[in-house]
Amino acid sequence: MSITEILFWFLCALALGGALMMVTSKNPVYSVLWLVVVFFAISGHYILLNAQFLAVVNIIVYAGAIMVLFLFVIMLMNMNADNEPQKNKWLKIAGAVAGGSLMLVFVAALRQTETLQAQQVNMGGEAGLIKVLGKTLFTDYVLPFEISSVLFLSAMVGAVVIGKKGD
Amino acid sequence: MTALLLILVPLIGGLVTFFVKQESQAKLWSFVVSLVTLAAMSVNLLMHDEAGRSFTAEWLPMLGSSFALQMDGASTLLCFLTSLCYPIIFSSTWKSSYASPNSFYGLMLLAQAGITGVFLAADGLLFYFFWELALIPVYFLCSKWGGEKRIAVTFKFFIYTFIGSLLMLVGLLYMYYQTADASFSMQSLYAVKLTGEQQSWLFWLFFVAFAVKMPVFPFHTWQPDTYEQSPTAVTMVLSALMVKMGLFAVIRWLLPLFPDAAVQYDNIVIGLSVIGMIYASILAMQQDDIKRLIAYSSIAHIGLMSAALFVNNESGLQGAMIQLFSHGVNVLGMWIVIELIERRFGTRKMSELGGLAQKAPGLTILLVIVALANVALPLTNAFIGEFLMFNGLFKFNIWYAAVGGLSVILSAIYSLRMIQKVFYGNENILTATGADINWVEKASLAVIVVAIFVMGVYPKPVFELTTDTVTLILGVFK
Amino acid sequence: MPINYYIILAVALFSIGVAGVLTRRNAIIIFMCIELMLNAVNLLLVAFSKMHYANAVAINPSAIAGTEAQLFVFFIMVVAAAEVSVGLAIIVMMYRNIHSVDVNFLNRLKH
Amino acid sequence: MNLILISAIWGIVMMFSGLFLKSKSSAKTVALIGSIALLIGNFFDLSGKMIINSNFNGMLQYERFGLLFLTVLVLALIMYILLSGKDVEAVGNHPFEYFALIFFVMSGAGLVALFNNLLILFIGIEIISIPLYILTGSDKRNLKGNEAALKYFLMGSFSTGIMLMGIAFLYGATGSFQLEQLMLQPQEDYKIFMLIGIVMIMVALAFKVSAAPFHFWTPDVYDGAPTVFTSFMATIVKAAVFIGFVNLFANAFGNKTGNWQMTVAIITTLTLFIGNITAVYQQSVKRMLAYSSIAQAGFMMFAVFAINDMAKQGLLLYAAAYCFATIGIFAVLVKMKDYTFDGFNGLAKKQPLVALVLTVCLLSLAGIPLTAGFFAKYFVLAAAVKTGTYLWLVIFAVVMAAVSVYYYFRVIQAMYFKEGEGQEMLITVPFKALLVTVAAVVILLGVYPSLLLNWLTLF
Amino acid sequence: MKSIIDLVYLVPLFPLIGFLINGLGRKNLSKSLSGIIGSGVILASFVVSLLIFNETRAEGFIATTVNLFEFINVAGLNIPFAFQVDQLSALFLLIITGVGFLIHVYSTSYMHEEEPHHYARYFSFLNLFVFSMLLLVLGANYLIMFIGWEGVGLCSYLLIGYWFKNTEYGNAARKAFVMNRIGDLGFLLGLFFIIQQFGSLTYTEVFSQAEGMFKGDAIIVVITLLLFVGATGKSAQIPLYTWLPDAMAGPTPVSALIHAATMVTAGIYMIARSNILYTLAPVSQTVVAVVGLATAILAATIALKQNDIKKVLAYSTVSQLGYMFLGLGVGAYTGAVFHVMTHAFFKALLFLGAGSVIHAMHHEQDIRKMGGLAKKLPTTHWTFLAGCIAIAGIPPFSGFFSKDEILVHAFAANPVYYVIGLAGALMTAFYMFRLYAMTFRGTFRGTHEQEHHLHESPWQMTMPLIVLAVLAIVAGFVGIPELFAADAHKLEHYLAPVFKASTEIAETHHVEHSTEYILLAVSITLIVLSILYALNRFSKKPETGEAEGFGKVLANKWYVDELYNSIVTKPLNGLGAFTNRFIEKSGIDGIVNGVGKSVQWGGRQLRLMQSGQVGSYVLWMVLGILILFVITITILK
């Protein structure tokens, strides 16, 4: 078992475990921290897949910005474990079952193609390098790039309109 | 050109009426409009103006649908009936006044436009269009000016017929995609060759729509309530004209489009119709409200017609043709009488009436004549039709004729029962107050009486008129 | 690595996210679960991009493939960021009004 | 392209004009100018004269159909601003921002109508959704509004997740986001990816157009949101998403009809059933319209179901008919205090003209001939019949249409036949004039739909 | 050449005009005027009929058809509006217009108490009746006959219900019409069979084709039986006879005209007209004979115990009609027609006499309250007596010849017929003279003030009585059996062309003259005896109380009305009520409304899915996704 494989399995375990902890832990703050762990694990995967740029962005944007935002909000509402009363048990179970069966269906659908077992993922290649990405981003993908500014604008306006105190 | 006029005059006239606020003027105006329509129709008939009986204009080329109107024998007859009935309706209900008369008369005329359109349309989509258009004004008329249960009752009627017509629309669409030149025109729809299996379900899609409109047992339950609740002027339109839409649709669309299915299912249809005749007659004997009585008797008569349409022999078809007209005239006469009674005595309950013959002999005589026409006494118009239809039914199957014949007896029973309860016997407090009918009402009833006898004694012209339709239908069955 | 592993992993994360949305009632946590779902998608996209890259080089060693997937991931992150800002704003507004972020209290509108 | 640019730019213009123009009432005017600018821009789009005449390496494709569809949307928008602009200003303290968001939504609609790449579809949908979350919650004091906003947001982003998963699988199948690439048959092993992808993206879009069983947000959100914005969401936005829906399935999966048609058929059936049946028992007209919009979506799903020119024409007509009628009804509804059916009692006596226009609009929604609604339904059903399969679906649909008559006519009955003195509302003369225009358009399209459809073949 | 025959349409035309004038102008016409018009038109058509009759008496006269206009010409079925003039129709024309005229004259004075417009209405109805009766006998095809057939039914309805204020009379009128309708349905079906078989309704064509067919052909049996059903309705035979006695609700002249002289003989005419068909269907002939005989006996028994002067006459009518059918049944077509003629005379006479009595007694009809009127009303008395003798069948009065002819033929066909027939004849004689005795003999049993006002009727009433009495006496001599004088039977000779075909086909059982003598002797003696018994029994101590024992059954007409009521009327109403309540309201309409209700219910239930909980919403969505996956991937892959 090569080093990459070990790494791979470790990251998988980390991601799944973190995700589960995030979902289950009572205290929102813990959930946030667990989610951060998951993001790190995923970034690890990116690196394994030789997509360094995304790995970095993932850390910065998600773990860095978004999660901090979450933390701020939670702190601001100073929520802690106990102020989430128990949800209706049946709905909980139903939810868990539904999620599980979704998983099952996916797996069942996917595992019927044996050939995919053989389908390898190339760990190398420079598709993920910033140089390549940058080039395509500003040539082929210039329209979405520009248009996403509109998205941000609207988000910004929205945040202001909604969040502005007073009125 | 006449074809177009028959629709345009009432349509435009009706729209104008909405702006004639003053009651008497609204009445006068709408009456004039209906007279103009009648004039146009009569001129065409007298001139034998064949050319004027069809009209075609571009409408929706992309849908392969054009604004095509065409009068064959049956539709000419029915257009004439429509244009004849409207002036009579207006004149006979002259005395009764309605809230916001302008919209009432406007809607009446719009309904006329719609009905005439149904009789004229020679294009599948256009036909469906008018089919619904005739319905909408009537819906508003009934729900606004009707009796106290009007809203619910009319609504039931509307949805009932609407479902039917939508099913027909699906069938029509399917037919459209079967046509060679992707067109809704009658000719290309006729030309479609369908497999037996296709025909059999398309047949039912169409038949339900028409059966609800006619109405054929067991699709009839909306009818007595609606007739009872809606203002009599509207009831006249409903039972004298709209009912014919269903029958006419069978003649022009159902039979020519699906001859094989029509033959395949003739026993079901005729069976239902014959059951309906007896069933409705028996119910008619139970009614106390005259309107309901007439409603059921009308179901019985329609049953005979719808049966006769499917017997697939000339006698039956011709009988049905002439009866289309006769039934319209007779039932109209019935409603007029009821309208007059109700306006005078404020009730339609036979149990509350009685002895009118002393107060209103004129009314009595006219009613007796109409009622006798209703029971198809010889030398009245209905006799010709019923004789031929029963003969056709007999040719088709002796037993249907025998069973259906019972309705002849039953009709005598309930009609005479009505005459006696309403007109004979001694007058009571309520009826002692009444007065006989004035000359306007007499005149409008006189027209009907004349029509009854003229057609009853000399039906030849009608036969000549409708021969082409009959031969067409018999042709497709060959 | 076989592509299957990645697919399973991504799907697993996605399903956990869904289960989280279904089981939790704290709006913020639900929102985080949704973020988790998005990340699962990102992972899947990257994996696929490498897969197609592998297919491409198998035919032509000097081929460049799978870039667009990674760019897509980039855009997903962008959108996610925008959504978060708006979403948190809404949640805060909610909190200001009813001093709770419990979605079970959202039942004025029903039937 | 012009339209996308102009709307984006005009959004910013609106924001800044908010700074300089103090009077709230000027917002409507500015917006009106903008919308007219959009119309002009779109006209040039149609005639092929664009500011930036490029499809950005196949990111966009300028189909007549899409462009014409946008024309309809813009016209609807103009009508919307004319009728309800004042009420938008009345909602909160940020009229300019509201209009700005509306314009951003329009640019999103432009993207969705013209996309040729899943990325654009995704971004377009997001640009449409995010402003809507905000508009829903724009009335901040109103708890219902907040609730609606949060529900909408949570479920919306959830569906985004679903859609992305779908896109990812589609990419896995074909290795590209370009529609023409998706058109190609994927290699054998990847077929399954394709299937999963189609289903998931279908689900996500079904959510956006509020098709059952993904419609649950619709009644609550439409009910909770300020009525003006409900009107906007229910009409223009829904239509915009639909054009995206149809484009995607026409240009990406059109050749794979059959294995996803069944799924669409199921969704359509459910939508028609739930939408119509549930609407029957509603007491509030606003909520009834929410359910009716679900039902109408069910009919528009026919366009997705039967991907052919008939379907596209049908969708175009449907969008026009549905938008105009609904905008008209909402415009009146906003002015009313009491949203229950009884609130409409005796309106015909108080406001005969308004009642008449409402009647025309309702008849159109019910699909009665002589109104645009009839031809709209006619076209989509015809498209479905044309496919020659699933006739039971069409028959089911018409039966449901008959059911819809039930709840639409309840309003008409209340206005005309029920006793009661219609409630007070301030109706200005220009407003009346506009209402009449709406009615006129509805009837005109109902008598002569070619007016609109001929544009598909013009130029 | 233009013969009077071509003007035959005048005969029905005059009454029609009279009807229109009297009907439309009833408000403005004075009584006398409308009376004159009413009777005048009939007189006019009587004159025309006479001329026509003359034509037909010419040697070798062949039946001519007068086409008026095309009535129905559809589906290869051509029914012109045409009249056929031959001996049979000519004879009936005479009877109808002749007797009709007398009765019109009679009515002018009988109805003088009526208000002018009712008076005019009465005459218009009377004219209308004559009109339709003439159509019936003149028609050249079964359809025209049917028109008249239903027309007379209508008129009897109108005239029975003439005093419309009285609900009882109204019911009687309805009963008459409905019962006729039942018969008419049979008739109509018969017509359809004829159309199917012969493709035409015109007599000449039908009969000429029929002659080609072999005897006892099933189709002909069916046709004749169905036609006979019609006849039972119109001519009051079992089972449809019950309307006729009730029909006495109408004014007495109406009873005389319609329910004695003319309308009820329509059935006889019809069968006589289609004699060839019946001759070809022995089965039907037997049925006709048996039914006729049964009716004759039944009615006679009932008549024994009736106390209403008109009821007695009504039942005697029924019974006499029975005889006519017996005659037809045994192939004595001439005899039947002969009896129709004589019966028309004496029965009209009797009714008018009764009318005169009633008139004198101020509308008292119960014979138990009469008696000893002989000296008060001499003319009425003598004429009435003549009528009684005639109907009883005492030579040389007319009734004797006609009845005897029928009975002899009956004997020839089957002696049993003769015996039963004779029994009936005896009863007839008995109840007629019971009636006579209780009315005119003995002492007056009415109130004093009635007695005070007793007076003979004016000439308008007595004149017809006298004329009819004379006819009743002498009419018999047109049909003297060759027993007495070789081919003195003018009538038979006259009618021979009409019945030529059937006389050829039918095998004639000849009766020895000796037997005939015996039969005559027996019958006459018996009849005379019963008359004498009746006379002295009822002149001395007339029965004034209610009948009891078996007599009660007879007095209540064998309870037939009650029977019909319980097996037909009641069940029909019950069925109607049931249908209305359960099938219509709860059944069909219930289903229709049920659909609507279930939709609303569904709406109420589906609303609950919209629980307001985000959690459940998302759950539904996920479930949706799962299901769609399963379907798409497993089923459609």
SSE arrangement of chain B, N to C: HHEEHHHHHHHHHHHHHHHHHH
Q: What is the averaged pLDDT score of chain B?
A: 91
Beta-strand portion of chain D reads under 5%
What value does the Rg of chain B take, in angstroms? 21 Å
Oligomer: heteropentamer
What is the 3D shape of chain B?
globular
The structure class of chain D reads: mainly alpha
| Cα distance spanning the termini of chain B | 34 Å
Secondary structure category of chain B: mainly alpha
- The share of residues in helices of chain B is over 70%
Distance N terminus to C terminus of chain D? 18 Å
Q: In brief, what are we looking at here?
A:
Chain C is mainly alpha-helical and 111 residues long. Chain C has 3 helices and no strands.
Map the helices and strands.
The complex is a heteropentamer of chains A (167), B (478), C (111), D (459) and E (637).
Chain B: H1 2-17, H2 23-47, E1 54-60, E2 65-70, H3 73-92, H4 101-120, H5 124-145, H6 150-178, H7 186-191, H8 196-213, H9 222-229, H10 232-257, H11 259-264, H12 266-284, H13 290-310, H14 314-345, H15 356-359, H16 361-374, H17 381-396, H18 398-423, H19 439-457, H20 460-477
Antiparallel strand pairs in B: 1-2
Chain C: H1 3-23, H2 27-59, H3 67-98
Helix pairs in contact in C: 1-2, 2-3
Chain E: H1 10-24, H2 31-57, E1 64-74, E2 77-85, H3 87-110, H4 116-138, H5 142-160, H6 167-198, H7 203-211, H8 218-234, H9 243-246, H10 252-261, H11 266-273, H12 275-280, H13 282-304, H14 309-329, H15 333-360, H16 378-392, H17 398-413, H18 415-440, H19 448-453, H20 459-474, H21 490-505, H22 513-540, H23 550-555, H24 560-607, H25 614-635
Antiparallel strand pairs in E: 1-2
Helix pairs in contact in E: 1-2, 1-4, 2-3, 2-4, 3-4, 3-10, 3-15, 3-20, 4-5, 5-6, 5-10, 6-8, 8-11, 8-13, 10-15, 13-14, 13-18, 14-15, 14-17, 14-18, 15-16, 15-17, 15-20, 15-21, 16-18, 16-20, 17-18, 18-22
Question: Can you give a write-up of this model?
Answer:
- The complex is a heteropentamer of chains A (167), B (478), C (111), D (459) and E (637).
- Chain A is mostly helical and 167 residues long.
- Chain A is built from 7 helices and no strands.
- Chain A is globular and about 60 Å long.
- Chain B has 20 helices and 2 strands.
- The mean pLDDT of chain B is 91.
- In chain B, strand 1 (54-60) and strand 2 form a beta hairpin.
- Chain C contains 3 helices and no strands.
- Chain C has helices spanning 3-23, 27-59, 67-98.
- In chain C, helix 2 runs antiparallel to helix 3.
- The mean pLDDT of chain C is 90.
- Chain D has 459 residues and is mainly alpha-helical.
- Chain D is built from 19 helices and no strands.
- Chain D has helices at residues 2-20, 26-46, 64-91, 95-114, 118-136, 143-174, 179-183, 191-208, 217-224, 227-251, 261-280, 285-305, 309-334, 347-350, 352-366, 372-387, 391-416, 429-447, 450-457.
- Classes of the chains: A mainly alpha (167), B mainly alpha (478), C mainly alpha (111), D mainly alpha (459), E mainly alpha (637).
- Chains in contact: A-C, A-D, A-E, B-D, B-E, C-D, C-E, D-E.
- Chains A and C meet through helix 1, helix 2, helix 3, helix 4 and helix 5 of A and helix 1, helix 2 and helix 3 of C.
